[in-house]
Amino acid sequence: MPELPEVETTLRGIESHILNKKITSVIVRQPSLRWPVPASQLKQKLVNKTFSGIKRRGKYLLLESSGEFLIIHLGMSGSLRITQEIDLKKHDHIDIAFEDKSILRYCDPRRFGCFLWTENIDNHFLLENLGPEPLGNSFNGEYLFKLSRKRKTPIKNFIMNSKNVVGVGNIYANEALFRAKIRPTKHAGRVSLKSYEELSKEIVLILKKSIDKGGTTLRDFVGSDNKPGYFKQQLEVYGRQGEECKICSSILKNITIGQRSSVFCSKCQK
Ligand SMILES: [Zn+2]
Asked: Which of 57, 172, 194, 230 is the most buried (most CB within 10 A)?
């Protein structure tokens, strides 16, 4: 599933190819994504206009045109690529074509992604309840500590809830909790300020590292019509259940929290 680093890498990859170029057509071949794609509205708003900016909020890409926004989410399996190819691959659902013949093409086999238009991003239902950006200034240990007092929810669910902080997917939650030595089932309200400081630091580190790795695959991604390669990372716990902890050699355990696999070391994580 595309996570925050893939979305950030996508942004960096497509930005220079789409900004300030006249849009010549919008083609929606498959409008049934997570929500119906408003094809005629997109054509009316975009053809003969330009994108003046692109930014990321959580895992949403926001492409600005004439003060309004195209909201894109990659869902479970979506990807964007820049191409000039006429030939389509299966699941290539949407094209936005530019005057220089390049095409921003959306592919999504499972169709859980979204392409929506909004005049105002501040009160859009997908965006208005999002917590702070983990790579932004308001995210730190003190923020998590204050927000979590009296919360009995497991810490892992707490940090994966986008109302508390956006973009901490399952892999990152597993890894950051291991590095901060916090057991994933611990009640969020019982985690100390010091541990939250460790945890917030680890979340930022792992996301930044993933984005940096993404940077190296960027060249392969833009201009080709292959799917973007998701980043192979050095993972300490995720996917390693039954193997030895790299710190203490205990066997890593796997439990399910909130229907997601949670791998941890019962000796290192308290
Ligand atoms: Zn251990």
From this structure: 172
